[in-house]
Design a protein that fits this description.
With 169 residues, this protein is an alpha+beta fold. The chain has helices spanning 29-35, 48-51, 57-69, 74-82, 87-95; strands at residues 14-17, 24-27, 116-118, 122-124, 129-131, 136-137, 141-142, 149-154, 157-162, 166-168. The radius of gyration is 19 Å and the shape is elongated. Residues 102-169 form the Protein YjdM C-terminal domain. InterPro entries: YjdM_C (IPR013988). Pfam families: YjdM. It comes from Pacificibacter marinus.
Amino acid sequence: MADCEICGASGTLTEVSVAPRPDAVALCDTCADGLKGEVVPEGHWNALSTSMWSESDAVKVLSWRLLMRHAEESWAADALDMLYLEPDVEEWAKSGGPDVIHRDSNGAVLSAGDTVVLIKDLPVKGGGFTAKRGTAVRGISLVADNAGHIEGRVESQRIVILTEFVKKK
């Protein structure tokens, strides 16, 4: 039985590839679920402060990507300040991530095609109208490089909406 390469937990492990290279990292169920955007126990990602020093480049890359997801938290920002990646490893880390996870105002993970409801009246710049609170926006699209933005149609016009002003239906 081996240990998770991120948190060190013993048990059943899943091999997860670290795109775009074929290298893989052995992860416990908690880390694998967290990588997909699911909620992990409080303090679980603090283990990244240790895993980022691994001798495995794939573990370093995955640690960097996960730290970038939490970069607004002081512990992750401190770890990122200390982390050094060789130029080719840094390029690898940036080429596949950080994975962007879109969440609504309540923290629910949003997916392309979901229906969301506006929780606030939103003036639409250049549209000449206000999208009213309670409006359902069906078939949303996710903005690939920005977790805070989604796109959808309101009054037959395609607009960008901040995720902090929607809740998943």
